[in-house]
Write a structure and sequence with these properties.
With 199 residues, the chain is mainly α. The chain is built from 10 helices and no strands. It starts with a helix and ends in an 8-residue tail after the last helix.
């Protein structure tokens, strides 16, 4: 994709994120996305087949960026303790900096039909695998105690996911600062990790 085309593609995804967050996926019209992106309605269809394709592309693209950011951050840390805290902090910071995206991922995508949920499952599986890899390496190094990696990942991701959902649905806007430390302490207890971190 050429640079101008890529820039327009990203502008449409940015506009779709804002539009879906504000109006809701089902009631949002493609014309609203086009207006926010500063393009003609017909231009949208040069990049996407339909509104469903926009939502799937949006999730795949942004989730891909999110996972890449976590991978990049993880290379700085060696211990399982520090790597888990890195994932927690990166997850929370990314969502707090991208609230509209958090609304789309926590609310709009979960109300979509099974076809859409299946289409977005790839990036989610990649994130799950990354978490499971960190946990498995921790067990192998005897840095954490965990009998089942998959259940450990479900608990870890589920806790982060629930915290973000609560934050998104809160009627009173608030910061996520400090929440990651509380969750990390819970994980230290669950995985029997020394909670003192160098991060």
């Amino acid at each position: 994709m050429s640079k101008p085309r890529e820039e327009k593609y990203q502008a449409i995804l940015d506009a779709a994120t804002e539009a879906f967050a504000e109006y809701g996926y089902f009631t949002c019209q493609v014309s609203k996305i086009a207006k926010l992106a500063g393009v003609a309605d017909g231009t949208i269809y040069l990049y996407f087949k339909n509104k469903e394709d926009i939502l799937v592309s949006l999730f795949s693209d942004r989730m891909g960026q999110f996972i890449e950011e976590i991978r990049h951050a993880l290379v700085q840390y060696k211990t399982t303790r520090d790597r888990l805290l890195c994932i927690i902090r990166t997850h929370f910071r990314y969502m707090q900096e991208n609230r509209a995206l958090a609304i789309v991922t926590q609310i709009e995508i979960r109300q979509s039909d099974p076809k859409i949920r299946e289409a977005i499952s790839g990036p989610l599986r990649e994130y799950f695998q990354l978490i499971e890899q960190v946990l498995a390496e921790g067990v192998e190094r005897d840095e954490i105690a965990l009998a089942d990696i998959k259940i450990g990942r479900q608990m870890f991701f589920g806790t982060l996911d629930a915290a973000i959902s609560d934050w998104v649905n809160s009627k009173k806007p608030r910061s996520l600062e400090g929440v990651e430390e509380i969750i990390f302490d819970l994980m230290c207890g669950a995985f029997k990790i020394n909670h003192k971190s160098k991060i």
